[in-house]
Amino acid sequence: MAYQIPRGTYDILPGEVEKWQWVEEQMRHACRLFHYEEVRTPMFEQTELYKRGVGETTDIVEKEMYSFSDRGNRQLTLRPEGTAGMVRSFVEHKIYGQPQPTKWYYIGPMFRYERPQAGRSRQFHQFGIEAFGSMDPALDAEVIALGMHLFQSLGLEGVRVELNSVGDAESRARYREKLIQYFEPYKDELSPEAQSRLYKNPLRILDSKDARTKEIASAAPSLFDDLSEDSKMHLDRVKQYLDEMGVHYVINDRLVRGLDYYTQTAFEYMLDLKGAQASTIGGGGRYNGLVKEIGGDDVPGVGFGIGIERVMLALEEQQIQVPNQNRLDGYLITMGEQAKAAGMKVLQSLREAGFQVDRDYLDRKMKAQFKAADRARARYVFILGEEEIAENKIKVKSMATQSQEEVSLSNLLDWLKEKA
């Protein structure tokens, strides 16, 4: 029986994985510039964490989680998003008792059971940042700016920020009643999913993908009309700071995001992608009540998540060339057993000095070994035979110029350092 990879997952093979490594390094570099530190949380958590943290009426909790019972009959779930686990870690380790703010980031796989399509898989990868401990709208602006800095460092063009405020608890309570009153006359025309959310969480209806429901929701009241003065002031400050930082944005008063924990600022990074159902490549916002909901002190937070698959798709569509960091400095060709043994010593000394080198392990003829060196994009080919060993020399051929010279074996490392 030939085994096949599960639907909605994929292998990232050499040739492609180097692009991922480069993108991830750009993410880590951006976080270093903004002073965010990496945290690695488990790939599964207690199911209740996501129900409480993400929201029981969200698509994630209702339809998309990979949940299971372990042998101790504990209810566990593969992480569908990164924030809830980061908040759990912040609370469990009592980081809220340390000087604030706390600025963290994560990179890793997430899992959601949904229909696979371009830029959307059942195992997907996400880069996210979380900043705890400050209500300052300048922190919201910094978070948004970090994402835009990343996209610029990757060379992506056309990324835009859509910005909104989903208000505080009092604002949303007033708005909730208005939405119920608005949608009730259309109840029978709403999708079954929207009908089930009408009295539980009507804001979720604004995020519906159903065509008729979207049409009805397009004329719904705006949350802007019910924002408290504090919420309006917070949003105005975020806009002011973004203006100062040169980060362009547009206001979208229909933007609510797909998770229940957001308060005040909400935003999305948008970029049109061919074949993708949605143009969102990332987004986030404030979640001022989430730390308390998960069992910690009443500590505010703000952050985002960016889908790495969608970033990779965008890089491909815009034909952005990713630096190839896997080019060999040298490829060793040996002739004879004595040279083969001596060659192992040569390779080891070069690798210990930090050079990327390889050799043939199939005992192929010299012509085939040269082809292998060419495929590996080696800068130099080192040729070592019985004659070279006797003279304590090694032949070095430049693959770029095809010129060849002899170098003392004892001086090879210094010669290569000079050429580096």
User: How far is the first residue's CA from the last residue's CA?
Assistant: 49 Å
Largest sheet: 8 strands, mixed
What's the shape? elongated
Structural class: alpha+beta
* Rg over alpha carbons: 28 Å
Highest CATH level, the class of the largest domain: Alpha Beta
Q: What fold name stands as the CATH topology of the largest domain?
A: BirA Bifunctional Protein, domain 2
- Kindly report the name of the CATH homologous superfamily of the largest domain: Bira Bifunctional Protein, Domain 2
The number of distinct β-strands equals 16
Number of domains: 2
In terms of DSSP E residues, the strand content is 15-25%
Helix content range = 25-40%
Number of discrete helical segments: 15
Pick out the low-confidence regions.
none
Strand order of the largest sheet: 1-5-6-11-10-9-7-8
**CATH hierarchy: architecture of the largest domain:** 2-Layer Sandwich
- Oligomerization: single chain
Average predicted confidence as pLDDT:
91
Protein name: Histidine--tRNA ligase
Enzyme class: ligase
Family: Belongs to the class-II aminoacyl-tRNA synthetase family.
EC number: 6.1.1.21
